Amino acid sequence: MFRQINHFRYDILDVRKELVNTSFKNPAKRISEIPLVQIRPFKNTARKNYSRDKLDELAASIEKNGIIQPLIIRKLKDSEYELIAGERRLRAAAICGLATVPCMIISCSDAEAGLFSLNENLQRSELNFFEEAEIINNIISHCHITRQELAGNIGKKASAVANKLSVLDLGHDERDIILKANLTEYHAKAILKISDKTERRIVLSEIVENNMNVTQSEEYIEHLLHTPKSNRRHSQYQKAIIKDIRIFENTIENAVKTMRESGISAVEIQTENDNFIEYVIRIPKSPEPTDHNGLIA
User: Fold this and answer.
1) Whole-prediction pTM value?
2) How many CA atoms lie within 13 A of 60 on its CB side?
3) 135 vs 121: CA distance, rounded Å
4) What distance in Å separates the CA atoms of residue 206 and residue 281, rounded to the nearest whole number?
5) Do both 136 and 21 map to the same domain?
6) Residue 191, exposed/middle/buried by CB under 10 A (0-12, 13-18, 19+)?
7) 240 burial level (CB within 10 Å; 0-12, 13-18, 19+)
8) DSSP 109-145
9) Are residues 215 and 138 in the same domain?
10) What digits encode the pLDDT tens for the residues 164-222?
11) d(CA 172, CA 32)
């Protein structure tokens, strides 16, 4: 089994030093130029999306300066290699039209290659939390190691690994909604408390529509879970019950602001006591000229 590693995210240069010196068997003594067509992506990677703009920037740098840091590959058979580290450089090299790339060829097991690829990918800030979880899951599945073994070799508790993987219980359509709405990993874990998939989609829609933060989402979900299902089913199609009423206040204020910007001299009067907040909005039946501050001229 591979050596103990203390953190998910650590200096990748230290890992490359480990690759050359100790961790893997029979590392190459020199850098070789390998044709791009002979290199295939790492089989267990879960990363699918790469920013074209960033790849173009990297390609421009490679055109000017060349590939400074060699890719790391392992040989599968004659004229066929598997990429372990450096997929962005490989893609950018293809954009540049390079025929070959500098590579360090190593010999390693699936588990060793998987762990190194895992750490190489996890340090990429642009990875989303679903991709991180998929990478970890792929390493466990394809390298024939347990969660406990993986956790022990990255200096984490098995519960932390299980917690990271839990977001994969969400369907791909749910993941897409979460990512497009820029929700966080904590949102995703809160949503998982809803076991019924249909209800979960409704809850997710409410969270997105009402722009709930993590605390508001958790409170909303806890409210639902403590509501009898017979009543909950009726309220599924209603607006979310949110304890933080500032969302509704902002909605009213924005509506009045929009009317004023449109030339309607709407007046908003707010009063508050210990029991409630009262809003009175007066909209004239005929337009009145207003200045830029929404006041009657």
Assistant:
1) 0.53
2) 6
3) 8
4) 26
5) yes
6) buried
7) buried
8) -HHHHHHHHHHHHHT-TT--HHHHHHHHHHHHHHTT-
9) no
10) 899 999 998 899 999 999 999 999 999 999 998 888 988 998 899 889 999 999 988 98
11) 40
Looking at 213, 235, 257, which one is the last position of a domain?
Answer: 235
Residues 162 and 175 grouped into a single domain? no
Same domain, residue pair 131 and 270: no
Give CA separation, 253 vs 93, 213, 291, in Å: 52, 20, 18
Lookup: tokens for 89? 């450089």
Residues 196 and 219 in one domain: yes
Do 60 and 133 sit in the same domain of this protein?
yes
In-domain check, residue 4:
no
Q: Which helix (H) or strand (E) holds 219?
A: helix 214-225
In whole angstroms, how far apart are CA 191 and each of 227, 229, 279? 16, 17, 33
Q: Are 198 and 233 in contact (CB under 8 A)?
A: no
> How far does Cα 208 stand from its chain's mean position?
16
Q: What is the pLDDT of residues 212-225, one digit of tens each?
A: 999 999 988 988 88
How many domains are contained in the chain? Answer: 3
CA dist 291 and 268 (Å) reads: 16
In angstroms, the CA 247 to CA 250 distance is 5
Residue 73 in tokens: 């590959």
Q: How far apart are CA 221 and CA 51, in angstroms?
A: 34
Shared-domain flag, residues 155 and 19: yes
Question: What domain range includes position 254?
Answer: 245-297
| CA 14/CA 73 separation, integer angstroms | 17
| 125: CATH | 3.90.1530.10
Q: Is 104 exposed, middle or buried (0-12, 13-18, 19+ CB in 10 A)?
A: buried
Could you tell me if residue 6 is inside a domain? no
Is 135 in the same domain as 276? no
